[in-house]
Specification:
single chain; TIM Barrel; nine-stranded parallel β-sheet; 41% helix; 16% strand; globular
């Protein structure tokens, strides 16, 4: 297994709640990520989208651009429309040397609305699954033709959240379509991330590492909270600081000789969880876990 450790800037500034961490500068994020030991960062809402501006800023701190989230809407538009809509994002990733595109289907999503409970999350009607997966496969093939691996991000509050959602999607698409394994979102949704890592190791192209505070998760589930309320309550933390079996996850990936990024992506309130402290803890824990 050959991995490189990166981090998502959500540790410093939240993309769904942009008032959270609004006082923390883009420069602070890069400086502290580099100081903690990371080799790269993912895109965040404070990042410039011009590679001629972004590249020297990252190079100043010896950081690479890992990848970046793209909000797909394949339940609302066809694959050609989606491919056209994602051109600027693809061009930025390619210009910055990234080889993975993080794709999430956000049609009807509720994860960015604090007023909606997670039990109200959208689902794909049975008769729409074939069309959705066909479109997704076509987009994945278009990305592959550009040297990018479409890595699908299952996410709380979206149409691809549960183990069942993931299985239908993976069984109905070709090997051009890859999976982003997100340990925290899997566990939150009631899926075993070790089982997902074992079952789909040969199609996993990207890994997001966030841990779960079990006591907070139980409380939020009992309340049927919104996703954002759970985040602010501290449901997530950095890998190795919660209840997820990371040894099992990395054993499964090691058996498949996974090669790529493993990324700390732990949404927390930076006023409660100091970013530099948790960034360092996450890096040190991932370094140990991926080497053991």
């Amino acid at each position: 297994m050959n991995v490189t450790i990166g981090i998502n800037p959500i540790t410093w500034s939240n993309d769904d709640m942009q008032n959270v961490g609004a006082d923390i500068s883009f420069e602070t994020c890069l400086r502290e990520a580099s100081a903690a030991g990371y080799d790269g960062v993912e895109l965040g809402h404070k990042f410039p989208r011009d590679p001629n501006i972004l590249r020297p800023k990252l190079e100043k701190y010896s950081l690479s651009l890992v990848s970046g989230w793209y909000s797909g809407q394949l339940l609302r538009r066809d694959s050609n429309e989606e491919i056209a809509a994602m051109q600027n994002h693809m061009k930025l990733l390619k210009a910055m040397g990234s080889d993975v595109l993080i794709f999430a289907e956000v049609s009807g999503c509720i994860h960015s609305d604090a007023g909606i409970r997670l039990s109200q999350r959208p689902r794909i009607p049975a008769d729409q699954w074939p069309n959705f997966c066909r479109r997704l496969d076509e987009v994945a093939k278009a990305c592959s033709a550009e040297g990018l691996k479409l890595s699908f991000h299952h996410h709380m509050g979206t149409v691809i959240q549960s183990r069942e959602d993931i299985e239908i999607m993976m069984q109905s698409t070709s090997t051009d379509m890859h999976l982003l394994l997100d340990s925290g979102h899997a566990y939150f949704a009631g899926a075993d991330p070790v089982e997902l890592a074992t079952q789909y190791a040969d199609r996993i192209a990207h890994v997001h590492c966030k841990d779960i505070r079990e006591n907070v998760l139980r409380r939020m589930r009992n309340r049927d909270s919104s996703f954002l309320d759970a985040v602010l309550a501290g449901v997530f933390t950095v890998p190795g600081d919660g209840c997820i079996n990371y040894d099992g996850i990395f054993d499964a990936l090691r058996k498949q000789d996974y090669s790529g990024w493993v990324v700390v992506e732990a949404e927390q309130d930076p006023s409660v969880a100091p970013p530099n402290q948790f960034a360092k803890l996450g890096f040190d824990n991932l370094k140990r876990l991926t080497a053991s």
